[in-house]
């Protein structure tokens, strides 16, 4: 039986730190457009929708070939809204209106525009190959953390407290980097999540698989300062990274 994968691209309009970053243009293309095109190019994805609260964003998404079957409610489009909220909303809407229920959701954020086609296909190939044995609840892309969390402090009033308390490393803040555990962060290229996991109230579940992407491909636009590096990567991607 064929496995149905729905790509959901989130693009709310209310970003405050970097206004309208989801539709910011780089090389005459909206950030939103890069994610839509990556999704449409992936042979493993059957359907591509954009979840947005904006009519303007919806029109832009459609111009790149995405579906926008609804406008996301404002109460789940705030700065503090969770991914789980818009993912469940999309799945519930499509199930109620179309009796459509995919097996997996591919979450592809506009703020990670550099996704070489061969890399996306490799991620899905690895997912399907490993998932047969592992039964993942989700499968995410990761990159090695540039800063060890064992060396991070948290403010507690006028005092500092080590963010991670680990009895194996009593003085982790001053331990050599080489003796501390390696850690990874979400690279954001694509998160593959089972529909069942989302409907149970999680975006990860308890069996999280991973695909490690090359460090030089890690790109995430959170501020205007991030644009320069991403523009370089996009130029490289055009020459088939």
What does this structure look like?
The radius of gyration is 19 Å and the shape is globular. The mean pLDDT is about 90. It has about 240 residues and is α/β, with parallel strands linked by helices. Helices cover about 30% and strands about 20% of the residues. It starts with a strand and ends with a helix.
Which descriptors would you attach to this protein?
two-stranded antiparallel sheet; 21% strand; globular; 241 residues; 6 helices; alpha/beta
Secondary structure blueprint with pairings:
Blueprint: E1 5-10, E2 25-26, E3 29-30, H1 31-41, E4 47-51, H2 55-63, H3 83-98, E5 104-107, H4 117-134, E6 138-144, E7 153-156, E8 159-162, E9 184-194, H5 195-199, E10 208-212, H6 227-237
Parallel strand pairs: 1-4, 1-5, 6-10
Antiparallel strand pairs: 2-3, 5-9, 6-9, 7-8
The ordered string of helix (H) and strand (E) elements is: EEEHEHHEHEEEEHEH
Taken from the alpha-carbon principal axes, the silhouette is globular
Q: Fraction of residues in helices?
A: 25-40%
Question: Which strand order does the major sheet show?
Answer: 4-1-5-9-6-10
Assembly category = single chain
Average of the residue pLDDT scores: 91
Percent of residues in β-strands: 15-25%
Uncertain runs: none
The total strand number stands at 10
Task: Give the N-terminus to C-terminus distance in angstroms.
Answer: 34 Å
The secondary structure category is: alpha/beta
The description of the largest β-sheet is: 6 strands, mixed
Rg from alpha-carbon coordinates: 19 Å
Total number of helical segments? 6
